[in-house]
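FORM 7B: Structural annotation worksheet

SECTION A. Query
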Amino acid sequence: MFDFDDAKRPSRLSRLLRRKLPLWLTFVIVLLVTVFFAVEHASFNAAEQRYKALTGELQAQQASLQAHDADSRRRTAEETDMLFGTALGWAVRSAMLRKNLDEIDQYVSALARDPRIQLVLVADRNGKVLLSSDRRLQGGRLSAHLPTVLLNVDEVTVESADAARRHLVVPVQGLTTRLGTVVVRYAAP
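SECTION B. Predicted structure
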């Protein structure tokens, strides 16, 4: 039940009071401990804010670098495609001047074997499809399948058909007149 020994044992507070510790000193100690924890909490919050700011800056830099990298890869791919188109244009020009459609058909067939290439066609200067990797298009009009603007392109260009496809347009120039146009539709890199 009630233990008399516990009643005789003084509590901590009574021991503190017996030592004659002034009340203001106790208040100062409590105040110092409170200030210490408040300063530590503020310091922690400031460090956390700096961490968040640095993380945000790093994420922004990473996004900028990724965008720059993607743009650089796109430009490099486009320049490579245009270089390929120039070489293809010269090869087709040579065969067209000799009226050798079989040689051009071999180029078209070889290009069509690449899984990234969806369509290759060669049209004359009037827009009639002479050769195509899709044989159903041969003899038809280019304008029925692709924009007629492609017939008026004066230099090798890469045009986006949509987000997933591109057109490499290669004008084929003869000595004095335009002989035709080569169009290669392929998956965007």
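SECTION C. Observations
Residues 136 and 178 are 25 Å apart (CA to CA). The chain has four helices and five strands.

SECTION D. Sign-off
Analyst initials: ____
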